[in-house]
Amino acid sequence: MTQVNEVPPGASGGDGAEPLLKVRGIDKHFGPVQALYGVNLELPAGHVTGLCGDNGAGKSVLTRCIAGVHQPDHGQIYFDGRPVHIRNARDAAALGIETVYQDLALADNLDIVQNMFLGRERLRRGMLDEDSMEREAAQTLSTLRVTTVRSIRQPVASLSGGQRQAVAVAKAVMWNSKVVLLDEPTAALGVVQTRIVLDLIERLRDHGLAVMVISHNLNDVFEVADRIAVLHLGRMVAEGPAADFDRQSVVEYMTTGSSGGRPFEPAGSVSGGG
Ligand SMILES: Nc1ncnc2c1ncn2[C@@H]1O[C@H](COP(=O)(O)OP(=O)(O)OP(=O)(O)O)[C@@H](O)[C@H]1O
Ligand SMILES: [Mg+2]
Q1: Considering the domain boundaries, does residue 64 fall inside one?
Q2: Could you tell me the residue range of the domain that residue 86 belongs to?
Q3: What average pLDDT score do residues 26-37 get?
Q4: 220 vs 113: CA distance, rounded Å
Q5: Could you tell me if the CB of 60 is within 6 A of ligand 1?
Q6: Measured between alpha carbons, how far is 206 from 42 in angstroms, rounded to an integer?
Q7: Which of 20, 40, 148, 224 is the most buried (most CB within 10 A)?
Q8: Which residue's alpha carbon is at the smallest distance from atom 18 of ligand 1?
Q9: Mean pLDDT for the stretch of residues 242-267
Q10: Residue 178 has pLDDT above 90, yes or no
């Protein structure tokens, strides 16, 4: 089985190339609540995209549309340039899209190996192949330099928040993933634990994965994201290189949908010319 999947540079989603994952014109409503309006998003390989937005902006709904939990009403998702229909979590996993949810990430009563193979246990002659699963789990954790856990046979309940999140991320990348979506991975974490997870996110990017991270903490966003996308009341109001943003403009986009009274203009577009 593959460890962290290496996407060949330039194959899909390097700078200027076709993004590995592309969302076009997604609408999603729940009864009378319109959660997403014509949302576009690009997740290039080898990049971390920070998805920002105030409470209720639609970040989690967008994530769940990509993860196959919700079906968009309209719009299209493209994977590696091909239109895809992601009907459930299994479809997403088959494409190499893995999602780390803040709360539902792991089963407390199981150990690290059991968690990492939950639902995809490896069998050998009809029995659980514990040795091979243990080896694989240990190898993945060490590839990601998750070195602070004492034993991969310790129950997840005994881990710190950061270690749990690290195991959740490792679990996501063990399955040959190419796109990792992290919904508030650091929300409940302290400084040191946040550090572990942010380092891990950078490592995923360095391995060529397309990473999307949702965070209310703009320090975290600016630290790891090289691209930023901002949702405001269900609309994507800004998307571009992190260098085109500062904290103030992100907060303005989050709270008002525009910055300096103007909608987002990608760098390179002519502005202020007269
Ligand atoms: N399953 C659902 N049923 C009905 N409405 C929903 C459902 N999921 C989300 N919504 C609504 O869709 C909108 C977007 O919610 P979403 O969870 O995506 O916000 P968010 O940007 O993730 O916010 P937060 O930062 O608080 O997590 C909200 O108005 C929310 O109430
Ligand atoms: Mg949310």
Answers
A1: yes
A2: 21-103+177-256
A3: 97
A4: 29
A5: yes
A6: 18
A7: 20
A8: 58
A9: 89
A10: yes
